[in-house]
Amino acid sequence: MKNLILIIGIAFLASCSEEEIKLNPLALTNNPMITAIDSTVHNYFMQYKDGIGSTGVSIALYKNGVTSFYGYGETKKDNGKVPDKNTLYEIGSITKTYTSIAILKMLKENNHTIETPIRLYLPADIPTLARNGVELNFKHLLTHTSGLNYMPDNFGSQYLSGNFRWGFCSL
User: Fold this and answer.
1) pLDDT tens-digit map of 100-127
2) 58: how many CB neighbours lie within 10 A of its CB?
């Protein structure tokens, strides 16, 4: 009988495994869940989190002159750091929208239109840029019809710095 109990005990222990229980990274948050707004943001996020194909999410809410920031998930896979109001994101293609808004605002403030030649805003030593004999204007840039290369031929790794890509190159 003792041997049977010993064999069953050994078999039981041998069947145990070290299966790691993984927490869903999007369960991490800095939402304090104090106010009704905090709870509302959290509830909306929880409804849609399963469809998010991202490691982390930042949410900003502006109401009655107050901005609230919420982070869910991680800034980088498995680093455990929740995104906050200072987290930088690569925003990809949406950059074009923000750039267009900034250009239109600049043109309006200077009483210019999208037909304004871009040479007025470039250093004097850069030659007038033209395509098929037509001088480039802001409309060409905003509608992606300037004919400029996506990446100039002389743009190299010497212009990359840290986590941010920036550069100056001759046209």
Assistant:
1) 999 999 999 999 999 999 999 998 888 8
2) 18
Confidence of residue 169 (pLDDT cuts 50, 70, 90): very low
Answer for the pair 94, 86: CB distance below 8 angstroms, yes or no.
Answer: no
E strands, 64-140, in order: 66-73, 130-131, 134-135
Do the beta carbons of residue 137 and residue 118 sit within 8 Å?
yes
* 128: in domain: yes
Beta-bridge partners for 117: 137
Q: What tokens were used for 73?
A: 């998930």
64, 70, 77: which is closest to 43 by C-alpha? 70
Question: Taking the model in full, what pTM does it have?
Answer: 0.51
Number of domains in the chain: 2
H/E element holding 29?
none
Q: Read off φ and ψ for residue 65, nearest 5 degrees.
A: 80, 5
Indicate whether 67 and 44 sit together in one domain: yes
The pair of structure tokens assigned to 148 is 């400029």
User: Coil, strand or helix: which one is 71?
Assistant: strand
Burial (CB count <10 Å: 0-12, 13-18, 19+), residue 76: exposed
